[in-house]
Design a protein that fits this description.
The chain has about 130 residues and is mainly beta. Helix content is about 15%, strand content about 35%. The protein contains 2 helices and 9 strands.
Length: about 130
């Protein structure tokens, strides 16, 4: 059986810049997410995924025919790596574990402000769905 992985970026009001230990300082007052390629005020360019390996579908979950989404918050650091991963909506312990294990290996182009990389907190979901034949 196969599965489908879906990555969803949800920008919510509680989401924003996060302190990254690899940075001496992170901007604290960002006015908006950049939509214009040549913005006139400080804004953040969101992180962009460049490497997203699929998680494994645990055999135990396959036998139980478990499907759904694992939601988590992730900080994308200035180097594009993920850290401080926290499951916010669990599906099943085995699926949660595989989702977190996979997201730990993901790489991003980091968020930037005025062209400088900054740490950014994202809410993402990893979906596990059985393919119907």
């Amino acid at each position: 059986m196969r599965f489908l992985l879906i990555l969803a970026f949800l920008l919510t009001p509680r989401m924003g810049l996060a302190q990254d230990n690899t940075q001496a300082e992170t901007p604290t007052s960002i006015r908006a997410v950049c939509r214009d390629p040549n913005p006139v005020k400080p804004c953040v360019v969101l992180p962009h995924p460049v490497y997203q390996p699929d998680p494994e579908y645990p055999k135990k979950a396959l036998k139980k025919k478990l499907e759904g989404d694992v939601w988590m918050t992730v900080i994308v650091g200035t180097d594009g790596s993920t850290h401080d991963i926290a499951v916010t909506k669990s599906l099943d312990p085995s699926l949660d574990e595989e989702a977190v294990k996979s997201v730990k290996t993901w790489k991003f182009d980091p968020a930037t402000v005025d062209g400088k990389p900054v740490a950014f907190k994202l809410t993402i979901s990893v979906s596990f769905h059985l393919m119907k034949n």
